[in-house]
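Is NAP placement plausible here? Inputs below.
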Amino acid sequence: MVNIKAIRVSNAALKDSKYGSDLVGVFVGATSGIGMGTLKQFAKLTKSPKAYIAVRSIQAATPLLRELEASNPDGTFILHQTEISLMKNVDTMCDEIKAKEEKVDIVFVSPGYLSFDDRNDSIEGIDIPHALRYYTRFRFIHDLLPLLKKSSNPRVISILAGGQESPIDLTDLEMRKDFSMMKAAKNGTTQTTLAFEELAKQNPTISFIHKYPGFVNTGVVARLMDTTAGVLWVPAQLFKYTILPLINVFLSMSVEEAGERGLFLATSAMFPSTRGGGIGVPLPTGLSVAKDSGDGNGVYLLGATDDVQPITPALRALREARGPAIVWESTLGIWERALGRS
Ligand SMILES: NC(=O)c1ccc[n+]([C@@H]2O[C@H](COP(=O)([O-])OP(=O)(O)OC[C@H]3O[C@@H](n4cnc5c(N)ncnc54)[C@H](OP(=O)(O)O)[C@@H]3O)[C@@H](O)[C@H]2O)c1
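Reply from A.M.:
I modeled the complex. Tokens:
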């Protein structure tokens, strides 16, 4: 467990560190929850930050924008209104960033929602919740790789379920044969880690972090309960109004702490890329460099308190089966199809 006090020491050192000035961050899924918590810390605790923020509604995000601007008058915060479940829209937003910026330091992706509903394909033919947890996130990462490579300390962070990789069918990554919400969620988790391992090989200067946030009080579970139907609706509502509030009070992490942890992952020397250590905000006393998921592969699988997760047997087996390369090749192909190029 990484103690929150040590994280606060590290984050407080940012403004005086050479790694805490003029950072450019791209935030996707930061209009609420863990992404928003991280964005607020980024705005408040770094010097002259610039953030590009994907939003569904400028109007709904304007109070957040005002709060960010008030927390750091030297910051630049750019809202980009778009429907990110479509890959073509991701490309448009990234093209705009590429036209304006010479480098990007942080890509922080956490969009999504949980739903018991059946498959819900977008007009590009990708299940929307699955796009948000995997295809959209990686399209941002893919598009921004050239700018990440220009940063002195580039970080990619996806908030999902690092450490919970499970067996997946490498011949049916889109789950056409058999779809369920649980299967899709598991696929997204495992695909994320495998894709990170492939990308880290190709981009050794970038640190890739896949984090399971534990239970953060963002309302995500209450919204999931509202997607139940039929006989499950009554127990789901009972859970929502009786047990869930207790979990929120006694067992969950606050959005603020999740955000402090998010900023730490994005800046600390604890998570070096394959290129090596010594880059990022120096470690406070008591902390040491984290162990990555391979031998210096620059991919980190973290739990709620940023503790390194053990490698699951499924992940080992998928590596033996060329899982990282297969997932990445499939992802590139699915994007081409979605964008009408194949
Ligand atoms: N919170 C937890 O306890 C927990 C635990 C395990 C895993 N996770 C995972 O961690 C990630 C972040 O969780 P969170 O609790 O921070 O989530 P959250 O508070 O629900 O925030 C989700 C973000 O995704 C955006 N979003 C939702 N549906 C969208 C759509 N159809 N199109 C575009 N954007 C959409 C939201 O935008 P709007 O503001 O416009 O709605 C918001 O910015 C999720 O993948 C979640 O499943 C969370």
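Short version: The chain has a mean pLDDT of 95.
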